[in-house]
Amino acid sequence: MNREVVKTDCATARVPELDFEIPAFSQKGVLTTLEGLLDRAIAGLEQDQPGRRESDANVAKKIDEFISKLKHLKEVESPFTFILDDPSGNSFVENPRAPLKDEGLVVTHYRRTAQQAAMLGIEPEEPCETLVDSAEDLRNEVLQFNTNCPECNAPASTNMKLVQIPHFKEVIIMATNCDACGHRTNEVKSGGAIEPLGTRITLQVTDSSDLTRDLLKSETCRVEIPELEFELGMGALGGKFTTLEGLLKDIRDLVEKNPFNLGDSSLPDRAEKLSAFGRKLQQIMDGKLQVHVTLDDPAGNSYLQNLYAPEDDPAMKVERYERLFEQNEELGLNDMKTEGYEADGSPLR
């Protein structure tokens, strides 16, 4: 009876042998003993007894009998069970033998019901199926956040969406539109990790239908056109999700708008070479020039659509290769250690 008891206001106290219950929210939270809890219940029942004896003697008599039973409980004339049920989990009954186990004390943890959660003013826990649905909703939702335009620095909005590319992986597409100056930009980020092997994709462009293939160029991908002796280095143009024709147009725009080839800084022979290069790119887009286009991505996160998927495409060759030390250095992998770093220990102070 001297065990300390912490009873919150949302806890229910019961004694099954007497069919006695102190409902939740009928009393304020209290720090007391088991005996003190029974004393408080007895005092509450005795409080209105004088008025009951005058208004309804039979009810008052029954309550007196019940009060007598509670007083017998205090004397522990016979064993009884005391149950403290708190859906908030913040109530407590002392274990006088701690840290040893108390054979007379049983603590049970359970999941709250929706009614109990509503009673406490909190949301019920979502089942696992709902979490899966939330992840699926995220794939179907276009997220929007505020940014500044990279050209005029005016407030703009950027849209972001997670896209699943068939027979490849998930990527994140971000597009920014500026209402002030009309500037538009889009960028693609890989939704996964760096692949164990690098990827080299070579496509033989034979007709205009090849230019409609979907293409994902990551920021770590190099683009080569051997027939034009052209190579676009890693990082140029950033990440893009477009078509092969769209990539060729971006390359042409990049070459034509090179500031070192415009105005007083341009040289006649260099300008002529770039103009000839632009005409050859146009011939490729018109289907008049057959070339090979190679996407070489050491991170393995670039993709070119296979029109025959899931079968092999006769016009496209996909190679997987081990990265060189220099390529790992560019990707920052040589100094990255994800396993066994705990064993190295920290330097002595």
Brief digest:
28% of the residues lie in helices and 26% in strands.
Which terms would index this structure?
alpha+beta, Jelly Rolls, N-terminal domain of TfIIb, 4-stranded antiparallel β-sheet, 8 helices
Order of helices and strands: EEEEHHHEEHHEEEEEEEEEHHEEEH
Strand % is 25-35%
- Rg is 38 Å
How many β-strands, per DSSP?
Answer: 18
Shape: elongated
Could you name the ranges where pLDDT drops below 50 across 5 or more consecutive residues?
none
Give the biggest sheet.
5 strands, antiparallel
Word description of this protein:
It is a single chain. The chain has 349 residues and is of the alpha+beta class. It folds into three domains: 4-120, Jelly Rolls, CATH 2.60.120.1040; 126-192, ZPR1, zinc finger domain (N-terminal domain of TfIIb); 196-331, Jelly Rolls. It is 28% helix and 26% strand. It is built from eight helices and 18 strands. It has helices at 34-46, 49-55, 57-74, 114-120, 128-140, 244-256, 268-285, 325-331, and strands spanning 4-7, 12-15, 20-22, 30-33, 83-85, 92-93, 143-148, 155-164, 170-177, 184-190, 198-205, 214-217, 222-225, 230-232, 240-243, 291-297, 303-304, 316-321. The strands form five sheets. A five-stranded antiparallel β-sheet has the order 14-13-16-11-18, with no helix packed on it. Strands 7-8-9-10 form a four-stranded antiparallel β-sheet. It has a three-stranded antiparallel β-sheet with strand order 4-1-6. Strand 7 and strand 8 (155-164) form a beta hairpin. Helix 1 (34-46) packs antiparallel against helix 3 (57-74). It is elongated and about 115 Å long. It starts with a strand and ends in an 18-residue tail after the last helix. The mean pLDDT is 84.
